[in-house]
Write a structure and sequence with these properties.
It contains 14 helices and no strands. It is an all-alpha fold. The longest helix has 27 residues.
Length: 323
């Protein structure tokens, strides 16, 4: 019996099974849950969240955390809109306005990731404090730059990336495939797991710990910027408060999927499962017209249970299996 419980807790597909069970259990009580339109909405909600969560996966594997992803999404959204909008855009009317806007958004995301990574890897500052400070400063910067106003008039070609299903899916799939290959097929991926398992041992073994940590935060910043492209395109607006409420979802989905808060453990497919499960919960609760506060309470409870499960898995891995 103990061995069976251990196998169940350590199963890579535990969250996928829970998602299927939850969907089946809620189907009779949630009108419209299996309707094609709702399933399309569910998929659309998953795509940008998955991209951000994949970036967070890299950071958590390296035994870090990035609390600044919501503010990164907001600032990159504002940056892209300032470049591309039809009224006051820096490159309005230029044939390269969309590529330039995309490049600007990715550059801002990478620079914020670089700043976080440099403070953590080079100055040896705690990730929680660094990224919390970045979140506060960058959020304020995005609001100050726009004077708390949304920026409209974005090019239709840009909006299509986030608003249309095929481009959004293609971007998300590309990020997921690249992330999977980077973690499973490259030396840098093996280094990342080594740093998360034991930073001191990795350093002694010749792993460039600082560079690996720096790279993880840059990847996280880039993923937040790519998610901002989808969010901004879908809403057709550059907003200084975009992504303000997704921090709980990003970290929660990653941990629910199985990426460990203790570092050294995580996979792309696990994050996909975690995003699916959390988005499914959010969707069903919204369909039942529950208040935002009730939804937050439920999601908070689920994420807490996921953290407890992570602790249990961490404890079980260090113990021999019982007969």
């Amino acid at each position: 019996m103990i061995r069976r419980w251990r196998q169940w807790l350590l199963s890579e597909y535990l969250v996928l099974f829970l998602s299927a069970f939850y969907f089946a259990a809620m189907w009779p009580f949630t009108p419209g849950l299996a309707a094609p339109a709702n399933l399309a909405n569910l998929a659309a909600a998953m795509l940008p969240l998955l991209i951000v969560a994949l970036g967070q996966t890299f950071v958590l594997i390296a035994r870090g955390i990035d609390l600044s992803v919501p503010s990164t999404i907001a600032l990159t959204s504002v940056t892209g809109a300032l470049v591309m909008n039809a009224d006051t855009g820096w490159l309005r009317g230029n044939v390269l306005v969309v590529p330039a806007g995309l490049l600007a958004m990715l550059a801002v995301g990478a620079l914020l990731g670089l700043a976080n990574g440099a403070a953590i890897a080079r100055l040896r500052m705690p990730p929680f404090i660094v990224t919390l400070t970045t979140m506060m400063f960058v959020s304020g910067l995005a609001i100050w730059v726009t004077k708390s106003k949304n920026i409209l008039g974005l090019p239709p070609a840009f909006n299509a990336i986030g608003a249309q299903a095929l481009p959004a899916f293609a971007v998300t799939l590309a990020v997921a495939v690249v992330a999977h290959l980077a973690l499973s097929r490259t030396l840098a991926g093996r280094w990342l797991y080594a740093v998360g398992h034991n930073e001191r041992a990795a350093h002694v073994s010749g792993v460039p710990v600082a560079h690996v940590t720096l790279g993880a935060y840059i990847v996280c910043g880039l993923c937040a910027a790519l998610a901002s492209v989808l969010y901004t395109g879908r809403l057709e607006t550059g907003s200084p408060i975009m992504g303000q409420r997704i921090l709980l979802d990003v970290i929660g989905a990653t941990v629910i999927g199985g990426t460990s808060l203790y570092g050294g453990k995580g996979k792309v497919v696990w994050t996909v499962f975690g995003v699916l499960f959390l988005t499914l919960i959010d969707n069903t609760l919204n369909l039942q017209n529950l208040s935002h506060f009730t939804i937050m309470m439920v999601k908070g409870t689920v994420i807490l249970l996921a953290a407890v499960l992570d602790a249990a898995r961490h404890h079980l891995v260090g113990r021999p299996a019982d007969a």
